[in-house]
Design brief:
elongated, three-stranded antiparallel sheet, SIR2/SIRT2 'Small Domain', binds zinc ion, alpha/beta, six-stranded parallel sheet, Rossmann fold, 9 strands
Length: 262
């Protein structure tokens, strides 16, 4: 037998093992990161970069201090980001998670992504621990504004800074910016889901950013299992019952197909 055939058989075995773990678990949650959106054409800014992330340091320009000190600079960057993300669509990996949820296999999805692709795909129980670009809010009075309205205001302003209709305060995207803490309610809900899960599937996340990287430990501590479906290495690889290295679209489409019908 060639080593290639052995490798293919090992991968098939791991995929079957994952389906088996889902079938035998009472509660399954998914934790997703940038890797699930790469097939939708959204680059992971931690990967050797292209476009937007190459020309600026996101940790500096997408920082809460920059929004306050130089809103025009902040919004030049974020306005471009909004425009890029507005054209992106969910891929088959997002859709497979929706299928698993609707079939009763999946309790919910926790995501590090702000791109709205899980909600667009139709995931119902969704925890966006870094917020999402769905809305902006006023820095002064807190009024919430939908993303398309914020974009329209940004385009209408000579300095490119979208402002509040009520008080003319600067708008901010409702995402966690560099220099900001994560939203407590979302983190609490994510922790609850993970601690109560018999299986956590980590998908397209390097598990290097905290506290997302620590969430699988809550599942493991309460006796649950960990599956990792991510192309690159993660710090938790040794703890995983199943470790799939293939692309997320193929692996999740395969999983959804294997589990049909519920
Ligand atoms: Zn306002």
């Amino acid at each position: 037998m060639s080593s290639e055939t052995t490798g293919a058989r090992a991968r098939a075995h791991d995929s079957e093992l994952l389906a088996e773990l889902v079938r035998s678990a009472g509660s399954v949650v998914a934790l997703t990161g940038a890797g699930i959106s790469v097939p939708s054409g959204i680059p992971d800014f931690r990967s050797p970069a292209t476009g937007l992330w190459e020309r600026v340091d996101p940790m500096e320009v997408a920082h809460i201090d920059t929004l306050h000190s130089d809103p025009a600079r902040f919004w030049r960057f974020y306005g471009e980001r909004f425009a890029t993300l507005a054209t992106k669509r969910p891929n088959a990996a997002h859709e497979a998670l929706v299928a698993l949820e609707r079939a009763g296999w999946l309790e919910g999805v926790i995501t590090q992504n702000i791109d709205m692709l899980h909600s667009t795909a139709g995931t119902d129980q969704l925890v966006e621990i870094h917020g999402s670009i769905a809305h902006c809010s006023c820095l002064s009075c807190g009024t919430s504004v939908a993303q398309d309205q914020a974009r329209a205001r940004l385009l209408a302003e000579p300095d490119g800074v979208p402002r509040c209709e009520l008080c003319a305060g600067t708008l901010r995207p409702d995402v966690v910016l560099f220099g900001e803490p994560l939203p407590e309610a979302a983190i609490a809900r994510a922790g609850e889901l993970c601690a109560g899960a018999d299986l956590i599937m980590c998908i397209g996340s390097s598990l290097e950013v905290q506290p997302a990287g620590a969430l699988p430990l809550l599942t493991l501590r309460s006796g649950g299992a960990l599956a990792i479906i991510t192309e690159g290495p993660t710090p938790l690889d040794q703890l995983a019952a199943v470790r799939l290295h293939g692309d997320v679209v193929r692996e999740l489409s395969g999983l959804a197909a294997a589990l049909e019908p519920a």
